[in-house]
Amino acid sequence: MGYVVLHLDKSPDNEVPMTAHIARTKMPPNAIPELTYLNEELVEYPEGIARTRMPSNAIPSLTCLNEELVEFPDGVTNRTEAIDHRLEHAGLTRKIGTNQVRVIRVMLTGTQEDMQHIVQEGRLKAWCADNLEWLRRTFGAENVVSAVLHMDEATPHIHAAVVPIVTGERRKVRKEQTDGPDKRKYRTKSASRPRLCADDVMSRVKLKEYQDTYAAAMAKYGLQRGIDGSKARHVTTHEFYRNAIARQQNLQDNIGELLRIEEEKRKAVEHATKQEQAVREELHQTTAELNAVKGVLKTERLKNSAAEVGSTILDGIGSMIGTSKVKRQEQEIRVLRQEVTARDEMIEILQTKIQTMQSDHSQELTAMQARHAAQTANLTKRHEKEMSLLKTALSKAVKWFPYFREMIRMESVCRTAGFNDKQTATLIKGKPLEYSGELYSEKHDYKFTVERVTAQITPDPTDKRELQLNIDKIPFKEWCKEKFEKLRNAFCQPVRQQKYKGPKF
């Protein structure tokens, strides 16, 4: 469950700057221009009164989607005039002081994720209606002079204006002074008389009550009250952007660190792949050696069989002739048998050793493959996490700095045109640059030689969200087109033929 957000502050000013913010005649740096058309004015203009100031980023064809829930009085066209109208017709008898609070600004919203969930469920209209009902019930319907829904920022929210007109006895009643018998006494004023008093509306008890009742009204949307007595404080716009700039300074360092970690992971994967290949080659060599030993073993067994057959034949011959030659051969055969036996024992030892080596090698290979798989999975997981962090950081940079994407594009344009790194950095900062040399036009595939021209990057006058490169205050594309046309006309100019006037005498 998310939390409701209710912020109230006093305003002794004429509210012109705040009205410009709400009407989007002055675009705040954190607003998303593509979403401004979703903003809704919850205060309806009367019939016959048109919108006098249309924001430059508004889409007129989508203005019909705006829903106006509360009507302004006749003759009132904006929020500032609505505040003055309420003060003039409230029946106030006392003059309004110069520094007296004329309006209380109320901002109503919820946690960002929960507000987005309300929008996706199609409950935003009901949420706006419940907020408007709570404002009227809490501060009085006549005192709620303006309520505007903003949809072009990260979190949908409502800006409301409440004029602090109250009735009843003052909170700080002066004690009757009886120091002397001649002390002047004043007539007690009527408690039902309306008066302008922001202190009665913004008392500590009232502020706590507002938080409780607003949370109860928003409970149906899954929003709850924050911690009662929390030490958390509201962050001003100046503090927010100061902190955002500080985070942006660390963002570049984080991006560099992520790239360094990515390079280390790539090298680790390459090393593990080389180790695996070496192990496979060693296993292949061991297998070849084992096959060779098996071949030698088979040959020795055939020799042993032949020797046994020969011995049997010699025994038969010796029994028949009984010569000394046969006895000598028998001795030689016994020696050979001993050698064969010794060789068989050696072969068995070698086979056992080979089997042991093969088993150890197989276990080592299995363990290495398991380590490699675990390491690869770990590196892949870290890579995905770091890439996600990198994408999040880049998306925040694009959101916090509207020209971030355009500055990257303009860097490519400047490099293609022929500017070096130092010159490109100067242009990206928006500073003018005096340049002499060659400028390349990709469209015409031609390098123009220039002498002391002034280059500068400025916002595109046709679309303030884009940037353009200017040469001598002329857009680069138009400048290249003009230069190319001059060159073509110079090469294609026909030669004039003089008329023949006859021979001269």
Determine the CATH topology of the largest domain.
Answer: BirA Bifunctional Protein, domain 2
Q: How would you classify the helix and strand content by structural class?
A: alpha+beta
Major pleated sheet = 6 strands, mixed
Q: What is the level-2 CATH architecture name of the largest domain? A: 2-Layer Sandwich
Distance from first to last alpha carbon: 111 Å
Radius of gyration: 46 Å
Report strand order across the widest sheet.
Answer: 2-6-7-5-1-10
What is the count of distinct domains?
Answer: 3
- Give the SSE order as H and E letters: EHEEEHEHHEEEEHHEHHHHEEEEH
Question: What would your notes on this structure say?
Answer:
The radius of gyration is 46 Å and the shape is elongated. Helix 9 (404-417) packs antiparallel against helix 10. The protein is 52% helix and 15% strand. The protein folds into 3 domains: 2-169 and 191-230, BirA Bifunctional Protein, domain 2, CATH 3.30.930.30; 252-400; 404-491, no CATH class. It contains 11 helices and 14 strands. The protein has helices at 16-23, 79-88, 112-120, 124-139, 198-201, 204-217, 237-321, 324-400, 404-417, 421-428, 476-491; strands spanning 2-11, 40-41, 43-44, 70-71, 103-110, 144-150, 157-162, 165-166, 195-196, 223-224, 433-441, 446-460, 463-471, 474-475. The chain is α+β, with helices and mostly antiparallel strands and 505 residues long. The longest helix is centred in the middle third of the chain and has 85 residues, at 237-321. The strands form 4 sheets. Strands 2-6-7-5-1-10 form a 6-stranded mixed β-sheet, with helices on both faces.
